[in-house]
Each structure stands twice: as structure tokens, then as C-alpha cells.
Amino acid sequence: MPSDYQPYDQGLLPVSHGNHIHWEISGNPDGKAAVVFHGGPGAPSDGARWYRDFDPAHWKLVIWHQRGCGRSTPHAGDPATSLEHNTTQNLVDDADKLRDHLGIDRWLVIGGSWGSTLALAYAEQHPHRVSEIILAAVTTSRPEEHAWITRGLSMFFPDHFEKFLEGLPEDDRDGNLALAYHRLLNSADAATREKAAHDWSKWDLATVTGGNNDFTGTPYDDPGFRYTTARVVTHYWGNEAFLEPNEIIDNLHRLKGIPGVLIHGRNDFGGPLHTAWAVAKGWPDAELVILGDAGHQAQEGNSMSQAITAAVAKFR
């Protein structure tokens, strides 16, 4: 991260239903605005990762934490925090309320994984507020995408999947696995919640890494991170992200005239390439960059990280 990349302003913005979203703004106050839609759902925004891509002399970079995670309040890591109003539509509304609060007319929207779903949902509803879009590890949260990542991947990871199922009561193993885990994650018993977060996270990590689910040296090493992300992601996946089945794909026509870059790894197990392909087909103004050696994650120095950096430079 550049040493001179420090937030020059930050705060907690009251949104709706008692939620406050944390935001920070860095770089050049008079620069071109960009906003990060982080992944998860439920994972905090990794500002340091995005700072590597945006020249602080040129960009006004906005980082925000979605409802219930990171430094936003109330926190989903507290089982007493209701997730009733933690929905895609409310997150879209939060993002535009933040844009208005910061006095930004239009901004570049960037996101990865779940952040790409949310970024697309936002852009489809507020296209006049979006200058460009950069998406990595593209998802649209269709029911088949959730079914693939919770059950379909068993063909590649039968060993991990068997343990994943064993974490559930036998009566729950044939239905909606995300909702079944969500029930355990909201149990009144702390030990039940902790075990469910551990078992869900073992599967989750395996799917994004291509089979490695060792927590060591990852955010999953933190029980609080495991619980928060597991609780929020099962809430979203179990409810099909509170979207109509093909809502994102069906509304891509609203992005006409907005230039974009879609970056996707051919070896992405958790989000197969066909989703990015479908988005590119429905959005002719976007360039699809297929990375033959990449999976789901952008890590410092890898081809996905380099492609994101190049996309940011393209829209400088």
C-alpha cells in the first residue's frame, strides 16, 4: 500500500432500520471518484488490497463496509443482531445514500465475487451514477450459482463435501444447505454456533481456493470472522440473495453505454466462467478478460491482481 494512502475522512452513516455503515475516503479530494463493493457477503472490506490499484494522486477512493460487517454497526458477529433488513436492495440503497452523502455525482464501481453481484445490482438501478465498472470473479447470485457452490462442487471435492454434510442433522442434508447451516448459526447454544461456523468455513475456504481449507494464515483463523461471514453468507445464499432468479442477467440492458471490464479465472471452482460469459453477452460495452491460470482469488502479484490493476489504469 502506498505510504501516503491514508483516509482523509471517515465516518458512520445512518442508513435504515438502525444500521450505520462505516466509510472512509482516501487519495485526492478533487480526483476521479471510485467505490469498492467488497466480497462476502459478510466479509469486511480489505482497503489495503484496493489501495494497491488506485494512484492516490489521481483517485478519490471510497471504501465502505456493508451492513453487519467490518466496522459497520450493529455487527452480525453478535447473534442478537437481526439480519431481517440485511438484503441486497437495502445494500444498494445504502451505497447510493453514501454517494449522495459524499457529494459524488458519478463514480467508478469496482467489486469482486459477491461484490460483483452487488455492484451490478447497484449499477442496474443507478446507471446514471456509474462512470465505469470493473468486476473480478464475476457472480450474479442466481439460484443455480448457489446450488453449485453448496452442492454441485461435491464432484470435485467429495472429501470436503462429506464433512460439510456431516455438520448438519441428517434430516437437513437433502434440502437447502445454506438455510440448514443458517439455523445452526442462529442456535441459542454457543457451541452449536461455533461448530457450524467452523464446518461451513471449511467448505467455503475449500471452494474459493480450489481445495485447500487450512485456516492457517487466512482470515478464517479468526473465530469471529468465521462466525460473521458464515452467518451473513448463509442468510444471503439461503434466500437466493433476495433477488429474482435471473434479475441481474435480465437487466443488463440498463448498463448500455457504461464501459466495463470483467475479469475471470478459468480455474474458478466457486464461480465457473459461464457466469462471466453470460454477463459479457448481455453487456456488449464490457470487455471480458479470461485468465487461464487464475482461480477465484486476487492475491498480490497473481494474474488476477495484475488484470485488476490494468483495468483501473485503463479508466484512469
Automatic annotation (TrEMBL):
Listed transmembrane segments: none
Active site location: 113, 268, 296
Gene Ontology biological-process annotations: proteolysis
Reactions catalysed: Release of N-terminal proline from a peptide
Localization, UniProt: Cytoplasm
GO CC, alphabetical: cytoplasm
E.C. numbers: 3.4.11.5
Keywords of the record: Aminopeptidase, Cytoplasm, Hydrolase, Protease
EC supergroup of this enzyme: hydrolase
Gene Ontology molecular functions: aminopeptidase activity
AB hydrolase-1 domain location: 35-300
Keyword field contains RNA-binding: no
Major location (coarse): cytoplasm
Superkingdom of origin organism: Bacteria
InterPro entries per the UniProt record, alphabetical: AB_hydrolase_1 (IPR000073), AB_hydrolase_fold (IPR029058), Peptidase_S33 (IPR002410), Pro_iminopeptidase (IPR005944)
PANTHER family tied to this protein: PROLINE IMINOPEPTIDASE (PTHR43722:SF1)
Family to which the UniProt record says this protein belongs: Belongs to the peptidase S33 family.
Protein name per its UniProtKB record: Proline iminopeptidase
Organism: Lentzea guizhouensis
